[in-house]
Write a structure and sequence with these properties.
- It is built from nine helices and 13 strands.
- By secondary structure, the protein is α/β, with parallel strands linked by helices.
- Helix 4 crosses helix 9 and helix 5 packs antiparallel against helix 6.
- The structure holds zinc ion.
- Zinc ion (ZN) binds next to loops.
């Protein structure tokens, strides 16, 4: 049994803390700063055992040095970013499996946002930590990759079980929602998600973790192979990667 705490950090980041009491394992994913993690650990009386990093950006790794000074927690990250994330104890890549407490963790290489970005899927609990690759109703900006690479990365994550819970790196859902509705206004799943998001944000609550099933139906960046979206962009018959590129470009230019 794993419990997950979603911890708001910095401007709009989320840090995720997992605790597996039976195994004495406590894991933090993408600690962009140490203070809010320390506060949760102190309040709960937990000792940090592992740190997972999805990619090298400072708002995902900025707290690691201070957290390791407290606990000597093992730092695990993407093999493809071995020269960009300091002092990793273990690195993994596509298809690798490792064990954390009760969980088998499967690693996906998800290049696009950064060259070496990875995602972690906790198989038994069906928890996906997607960093800045997949957001609720959105996806990460393409700083170091092509649209085709990012589409391939997203296809790997889309293929996971529908009851998987998506834990992403930022609270961008409301902004993503405005864009998604602008290109896909008749999507019933998207309209249902809009009501849910409005209710959560009105209470100041996180909009995550959504079910992957709902993202598969509502997130335009997971639907680049949908004929309706292709038609919206005048790309009927084009490759999904080309449609994905058009969606990403439109989002980059969107002011809504
Ligand atoms: Zn990033």
């Amino acid at each position: 049994m794993v419990e997950v705490h979603v911890v708001p950090a910095l401007t709009d980041n989320y840090i995720h803390i997992l605790h597996d009491a039976a195994h004495g394992v406590t894991v933090v994913v993408d600690p962009g700063e140490a203070a809010p993690v320390r506060a949760v650990l102190a309040e709960r009386g937990w000792r940090l055992t592992h740190i997972l990093a999805t990619h090298h950006h400072g708002d995902h790794i900025g707290g690691i040095t201070n957290l390791r000074a407290d606990s000597h927690a093992m730092l695990i990250g993407p093999r493809a970013e071995i020269d960009r994330i300091p002092e990793m104890d273990a690195t993994y890549g596509e298809g690798d499996l490792f064990t954390l407490g009760s969980q088998t963790v499967r690693v996906f290489d998800t290049p696009g946002h950064t060259r070496g970005h990875c995602a972690f899927f906790f198989e038994e609990a069906r928890l996906l930590f997607s960093g800045d690759t997949l957001f609720s109703l959105g996806c990460g900006r393409l700083f170091e990759g092509t649209p085709a690479q990012m589409w391939d990365s997203l296809l790997k994550l889309r293929a996971l079980p529908g009851d998987t819970r998506l834990y992403c790196g930022h609270e961008y859902t409301a902004s993503n929602l405005r864009f998604a509705l602008s290109i896909d206004p008749e999507n019933a799943a998207l309209k249902a998600r809009a009501e849910e998001v409005a209710a959560l944000r009105a209470k100041g609550l996180p909009t995550i973790p959504p079910r992957l099933l709902d993202e598969q139906a509502a997130n335009p960046f997971l639907r680049a192979d949908d004929p309706g979206l292709a038609a919206h962009f005048g790309l009927a018959g084009a490759s999904p990667a080309a449609v994905f590129a058009a969606i990403r470009k439109a989002k980059d230019d969107f002011r809504g």
